[in-house]
Each structure stands twice: as structure tokens, then as C-alpha cells.
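As promised in the previous annual report, we have extended the structural survey to additional targets. Below is the entry for Oxidoreductase.
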Amino acid sequence: MAMNRRNFLKVSAGASGSLVVSLTLPGCAGIQTGYEPDTGEWRPDAWLELTTDDEVFFTLARVEMGQGTYTGLTTLIAEELEIQPEQIKPRFAPVAPEYRNPLYKLQLTGGSTSVATSWEPLRMAGAEARQMLVMAAARVWNVEASDCRASEGRVVHPNGIDSLAYGRLVELAAKEVVRGDIALKPRSEWKYIGRERGKLDARAKSTGTAVYGIDVELPDMVYGVVTRSPRRGGRLLGFNGDQVRAMAGVLDVFEIERGVAVVADKYWRARKAQDALRIDWDFSDAVSLSTKDVFDSYRSAADEDPGESERSEGSFASAVEEGDRVVEAEYAQPYLAHATLEPMNATAWYRENRMDVWAPTQAPDLGRIAAARVTDLGPDDVTINTTFLGGGFGRRLTQDYIEEAAAVAYRIRRPVKVIWSREEDTRHDLYRPAMLHRMKASLSGGELTGWHHQIVGPQILDWYVRNAAPAQYPWAPKFMYDTLGSVGLMAEGIATPKDISAIEGAIEYPYRVANIDIRHTHTDPGIPISWWRSVGYSHNGFAVETFMDELAHEAGEDPYQFRRRLISHEPRHLEVLDRVARLANWQSTLPEGRARGLALFRSFGTYVAQVVEAGIENGTVRVYKVTCSVDCGQVVNPRIVEDQIEGGILFGLTAALYGEITLQNGEVQQSNFHDYPLMRQYERPEVVVDIVDSAEAPTGVGEPGVPPVIPALGNALFALNGKRQRSLPLKADV
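The corresponding C-alpha cell record, generated without further manual editing, is:
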């Protein structure tokens, strides 16, 4: 065996003589599942395997939900291994502590972290394997390894003619000892990183051979649907079970924790039986709020509690006292659904004191906890088989749909697929929280001297910790699960990371202002919430960049020049701002009825500036063009960056124009795309994505396109008609 301890790499021979390179991703060194120097024991958390049949397998620890991990992470391996990315066969990782995301200590995909956390270790794994293959070939030929080279899946002899395929060398390579660090290829020699290539999963997805959760088929499989309380907290009193059980194809009707499950031999028979259900609910302890009630409670909370200080510099009170003008504004954003095109679903099979689950999940280790909760099994008895995901956007970080499937399978003892309808997916989502922002700024002689931002609303961890805490300690008995969650919340910011979901994007306010006061008033009306694409950056971006536009107007200054003057100390912010202004011809005249708006925002380590060109046609807001400049560090595949930024822009525009979940007496009013619409193809604007050529460490692109487009559109509408909109969605008739 050979091991480079500095990089936590291990080399071994597989059972079939294959070459296996194992590695621990950054940040995992402190987790007990990594290398144990006292015992010499090694438990790898990811691996690359080369077989004697010239196959190359890569275990992918991050799920693929359209964001490009399947291609991007594989490209990192391919670059150093000197093979084409198409030659590598990715496979989704099983649940194991070794596959945890080092930033979250959970096995989840989110936060635009996949490339950032894998950038160096995956390249190192490829380089280590390449070096061992070269050393093995040199030993065969009795030449110096330094005189040999790897190319296109082969090691080439110093004579430039003879070569050996990797497959013929793997058994010998596994016995080689690598001493010292292996140099990674310099940027000037990259063949695949930084180059446009198609996605490795494109053919499977376009031909229908890619298996999503909803595609899973098993022998003797049946179908389940669940009717849940229309109001959170509703308690089941009774239902007409005998009548529904008598219907054709119905196998059973029974209560589970989340409602009433119907199981039938066919999906539509299950739906037809569900329509015949008559359920009595007790709503005495249920949520009964309206949307107005939610925001009234936010305003009361803001009046009574100035909030916990999250960032304080200088003295905002003195800036107000000494300034000649104070500008105030209040911004409100509604609850938002995720609206993934593949609705929630999972297939579960309970047998012989174990359970297999097939699910499109962003957090398979939390899925194990969800299944264990509702059965007599422990997490180790549950196997999660991760499929492709038909959209995630944070919704599939919460495992309620797996919990339901597990509960149904535990009762039925047959493989059962539980599918949510679109209406159920919309009405029983865990939403992007509604938020309120109170802004105040002081101006003195046209200079911005003070900035105050009070954020009012809940924290997502309060809702997420239920299964997240037990997943970090899967050895804990189930009776401790809720206790672990409570302890995690109590220890927040002390023993566990601080939840910044409400304040991210606000506390990093980048403009040069001497006096800054940022606060969070924590209040929760009891509506279920979860992570939503770009999370807190989405609502804070709207408040911060709309208010900056208001201040530019108050100061009588061009919005671009106003921002530029206050951001000159931040070179990466400044570069994307200048680039987007130039690309969008910021100063040029537009046709009558059109205007431009600008926003600048950094999220998930990525700098994004956007200019939106918009107007109003036939009483409807029309977005004509979005120009975007993005600095995400070193780029693995420019096409994926462009796709993700454009997707984020369209996602953000959908939220800006249409996104709104409303409540009446505790019930969600929206149900499907007719009343919770997505942007249609005919509405799609021209999108121009400009990528900064950077040598900085790579950052994420799945989410940073969302936050700036919403305020940029609002700012464009203000430039068009002089009417400032401080609540979402944006309207044409204000």
C-alpha cells in the first residue's frame, strides 16, 4: 500500500485486482471516520477505481439535480488522470459518514459547495493514480518513470511509440509506493478544466434512460398516496376507511403520522380512492393565520424587539444625528414554493428487518433517519439508493416524503412508491420564509454615512434540525432523536454552527460606509420553512440592492456610479460591476418604454453583477434582456457556469414576477402552475453571461444568479415609471 498522508490518500488493490485510490475530502480530517494515525486504520470517504478491463469508476458523493456535479467533479478526476471525462463512469455514493459534506458534517448537496470542496482532493486522486500507473509501466520497461508520460488512458514509453493501457497496469500500480507530494498539472496544461464540454449525463437524460426517483420500478410494486391536514397542526379524528378499502385495486387505507395513506395496485386507483376519502380533522390546535396576520406579527415583533446585533461598526445613532437626511424603507417578501418539476416521491421496501429506499434526495443520510423514525429499524438497517433528481432547489434537503414512504412500506411489507401530486407538492411544501426588512440610512452632503438593516423573520435550522442532528450521530438510540435536535438548537453558535439563514447577504454588506448596524429580530409564525435556492441571500439581496438604488436616487447620483464609488475598495466586486455596465451599454439610450436596472451581490463566495432591461407591455411586465458578469474563481466547465447562471436568473425572475404563497385561515391558497406559475418559454429574455477569467479558488454557481436579478428588475421598473416597489411579486400596475 502507498499513502500520501498529507493529502489523506490511500491506494489499495480491489477484490478483482483493480486499482483503488481513496481520499478524504477537505475538512474531514477532524471526523473520526478518516485516517487514524494511532492505529493506522483508514476508512476512505470517496474513491476512484480502475479495473483490468480498462473501466474507470468514480464514486460521486454529491447528488446530480441538474447543477452539473456528474460532469464537473468527474472532469477534475479526468484532467489529472489523463483520460477523457467520457471514459469515467460516475456512480452515486451510498450513505456513509465518509461521504459527508465537510462544510456541513452531513451527507448533503447544497450551498453551491460541490466544486469548491472537491477541487483539490479529486485532482490529487487523479494525479496519484496517474503517477502509480506511470511507475508501474516504467518498472515493466525498466526505464525511469520520469521519462514516461500518461496520455489518453495509456502510459507512453520514452521512445514515444510503445504504450500500455491503464487496464494492463492496475494490478502492478496498486503495489507502487508514492513518496512525497504529486504535483498537480499547471493551468497551462489543462485539457478539460476550463473548456466547454457537453454534460456526461445529457444522453441518458435526453433519451429517457436516466433513472429519477419517479422512474423506479420494482417487482410486485404498489402505489401509495397520502392525504395530509390542510392546516399545519390539524389532528385526525376519523375517516371512511371501510368504504375506501372496498374500492377496486385498493389494498389498504390507514393512518400514519402525517395523515391518511391509501395503497393500491395502480397509481390512478390510489388517486381515485383518495378522492373518495372523507376525513374529519380537528383544527383546534392548527395554524389559522392569514398572510396579513403573518406580516402583522412581523411588524409587531420589529416594534417590540430591535433584534440581536449581527454586525456593528461605528455609531449609526451618531451618523443619524450628524447627517442632513435620513432615508427609511420597509421591504416585504412572501413565502415561496420550490416547484421542482419532479414532485416529491420515494419508493420503499421493508423486508427481513431491513429497508431499501430509492429516492431523489439531496441528503441521503437524513433520509435514513427519516425512515428509521417510523419503523422498528435503526439507521444502519436502512439503505438509501440515490437517483437523479428532477430539481432540488433545497426542497429535497428535507426528508418528509421519505418518511411517508417508509411508514407506508412498513405497514404494507411490499415495495411501494409514494408520489405527491402537484397540488400536494405546492400546498405541503416547506417554503422559503416570508421576511420583513426595515432599512434606514443617513446621508450627509450626498455621502452615505450610516446603514441600518433590521431583518425580521424565522430561522430555517429551527425546522431542519429534527433529522439533521440525529444524522450527525447515527449511533444514537431513536428515543434521543428529538433531544439531539433540541440540544443542537440550544448549542447553536457555541457547539454547533450559527444559523445565518436569515442574515446571510446582509451581514456581508460590502459598501464602504463608516457606520453600520445590522440586526435580526427572530420571530416564527409557525409556517413550515426550509432552504430555497440561494436561501437568505434571495430576500436580503432584494432589500439591500433595492435600498442602495433608492439611496442613489436620493443622492442624485447614477446608480452605477453611486455603487462604484462605494465599492472601489473591493476589486472583485468592482470588476464584475464595471464589466456588466460596459457589456450592457449602461449609459446608452433605450427605445421608448424600456429602462435598465442594476444590482451587485456576492453569495456563496461568487461575485455577480446584473443589468436588467425591462418594460411594460399590455399591462404586463416584460423582461427583454439580462446581462450578467460573474466571478466564480477558476471554472471547470464554462458551459455549466452559463447554464446555471441563466437558470438562476430565470428562477429569480419567476419569483420576482409570480412567486407568492398566500395563506387564508392557515391554508395555502395556491395549488398548481395555474395559480403558482413559472416563467414560460415565450417570456424568456435574452441572457448574456460574462465569466471573469480568474485564478482564484473555485466557488459555486448553482445559486448566485438568483439574488441580484430580483432587485435589478425592480430597479429597472423604477427607472421606467418612477414608482418604487418594496414588496414582491413586482407588479405592472403600481
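The CA atoms of residues 239 and 653 lie 42 Å apart. The chain has three domains: 10-199, 213-284+344-419, 293-335+433-460+499-721. These points will be discussed at the next consortium meeting with the crystallography subgroup.
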